[in-house]
Every structure is written in C-alpha cells, then in structure tokens.
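Protein in question quoted in full.
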Amino acid sequence: MPPTATSEQLTHVRDILAQLDRQPEPSQANRRKKPRINIRMALTMTALSATSRPTIQVFSRNISTAGIGFVGRRPFKSGEYLALEFQIPDHPAKLVLTQVTFCRYVKSAIYEVGVAFIEAITLDGSLVDPIPPHWMQIADPRRAKSQSAAPAASTPDPVAK
C-alpha cells in the first residue's frame, strides 16, 4: 500500500484540481459520449506493463461510465494498461482494468491522465495476486505469446462494465 499523502500534499493536489476545473475544456472533450461528474478521492493503481507492477497513488478528477480522469506524479504512455482499485465504504472492493487514453504535464511534477474502463472484477480478499492473468496478457502481448504453449488457465467469469 502506498504511503498516505500529507495534508500539505493534499492541499497542493486540491489547488491543481481546482485550477484544472477553471480551465476551458479542450476541443477533444466535446467528443465524449458519456457525461462526467467531478469526484475527488485518493485511488491506488497498479501499472501492469512494468515488470515489478508498482502501486501508484493518484487523485481522481472526474468519472463517467466510460472512464476516469486523475492526477498524479507519474507520466503514463497512451495505450498503457493500469489496474485501478476502488474501495468505497459499505460496498465490495472493485479492481478495474483501464487503458490510458491521454497524459499531459500540468505543473509542479503533476500529470493529468485519462483512462478508459475495460473490465471490472470484485475483489474477494483471498487472492495473493488479485490481478487476473488474462489482464497481464492484455497488457503485455509478448507474455501471451510465450505462454501460448502452456495449458490455458481458467478464465474468471466476465463482469459487466
């Protein structure tokens, strides 16, 4: 679990989010098919393309049924896959496979990132590694090719997006 942000860091993030909210939306925002709502919460993401699969703390900016926007200190490549963990009180935790659609530098080592939702699963807490193997194959197709000779692992039941 990543370290908790200090109150000073959270204030800095809130200021940047407020500044982003005041900026006019770029022309690409008009192409969005799903309405977005502003939401502010700390989230944990796992970069699936990295060999070590680091966990990264980010702060949400807005969300829709198609994806989520957030800010964080790490740049991401367009097309990169991330596992996003949602922990909402009184609800089962969810792990969501996402794909980066854009990333831009904002200021003060902060990046704004948008990701599209691909697939979601409910976390049951009993798994040592909650990330499904087929997500790792999606994130790294070379891994899928090297494992194609091995017997197929059981695929979890699909979950509606």
